[in-house]
Amino acid sequence: MAIKYSVLDLATILKGDSIRQSFEKSVKAAQKVESLGYHRYWFSEHHNMPNVASSATSLLIGHIASQTKSIRVGSGGIMLPNHSTLSVAEQFGTLDALYPNRIDLGLGRAPGTDMLTASILRRGQLENHYNFEFHIQELKQYFSLGNSNSKVRAIPGEGAEVPIYILGSSTDSAFLAAKLGLPYAFAAHFAPSQMEVAFEIYEEHFQPSSVLDKPYKMACINIIAADSVDEAHYLSTSHFQAFVNILTDQRQPLLPPEETDLANISDELALHLNRMAAKTFVGDKASLEKKLSEFVKHNKIDEIIVSGHIYDFEAKLHSYEIASQILKNM
């Protein structure tokens, strides 16, 4: 059975683009990948980042769902500590009512931003030991019909059938996803070092649930594909520059390849960059087929989530097309 393949979008802001143009490109990208057979289109929640416009995640999900027909749309993810579980249930209950059987709710426990911004989002209530499991169960309670006699109800939300996914970039959430019997998505596109161990933990400790009878592993990786290897590597310079900017805390809109400066970075920075980009796959169709096939088989992946920064929008759409040609045959 072929694996599923999907997209993670940050509503990345390109140099020279307005926020509106960033959103317009997300719509066009979602429509394109829907036609290519991609299964879902997710947005990630980030804040206080000049190169990322996906902070109001649920609003973008609704907008993309309204401009597409069948592709699932959701969060990869909502950073649950930033929100009350009631408000999340209401927002996604609303989305589910508007777009039945198309909305996903991926949940993470990281802030998706710096700690000062997180403190403002959470009104100063930063918890040293946030009980992620408790709040997931609380959220599930708001979604359940069994909550109808409660003094606090999520309307919309109550009775909504919104599937929940646990996101992780370390091993912590692997234990929780296994315990709850939920699908597990690992953020290997920026934090690949613990992916294999996290998946092993998830498989070893998995407890069947009403949602899943066996583990469901989703890996988010970067794929930058083009008609030639040289072109793919040229396009990828924007992506690697974005990583360097993260590592040096110099956030800015995504740069075109001709404005990147990767030749003069320090050896230490290059080492960190290589670690961060360990699950970034760059090449043409022929070279990527073998690499991606080995990755999927070795890690027993059920679903690939495609990420990757490409400045040229038509080249980005073409990269999605090449990736779909590879992944649909796995």
SSE layout and pairing:
Blueprint: E1 4-9, H1 19-35, E2 40-43, H2 57-66, E3 72-79, H3 85-98, E4 103-108, H4 115-121, H5 132-143, E5 164-168, H6 172-180, E6 184-186, H7 195-205, E7 217-225, H8 229-247, H9 267-276, E8 280-283, H10 285-299, E9 303-307, H11 313-327
Parallel strand pairs: 1-2, 1-9, 2-3, 3-4, 4-5, 5-6, 6-7, 7-8, 7-9
Helix pairs in contact: 1-11, 3-5, 6-7, 8-9, 10-11
Key features of this structure:
eight-stranded parallel β-barrel; globular; 9 strands
Summarize the structure.
The protein has helices at residues 19-35, 57-66, 85-98, 115-121, 132-143, 172-180, 195-205, 229-247, 267-276, 285-299, 313-327; strands spanning 4-9, 40-43, 72-79, 103-108, 164-168, 184-186, 217-225, 280-283, 303-307.
Strand content: 15-25%
Overall helicity: 40-55%
Major β-sheet profile = 8 strands, parallel, barrel
What distance lies between the first and last C-alpha atoms, to the nearest angstrom? 8 Å
Number of separate strands: 9
Radius of gyration: 19 Å
Class by alpha and beta content = alpha/beta
Sequence stretches where pLDDT stays below 50 over 5 or more residues: none
Helix and strand sequence? EHEHEHEHHEHEHEHHEHEH
**Overall spatial form:** globular
Query: Major sheet: order of its strands?
Result: 1-2-3-4-5-6-7-9
Number of helices: 11
Mean model confidence by pLDDT: 95
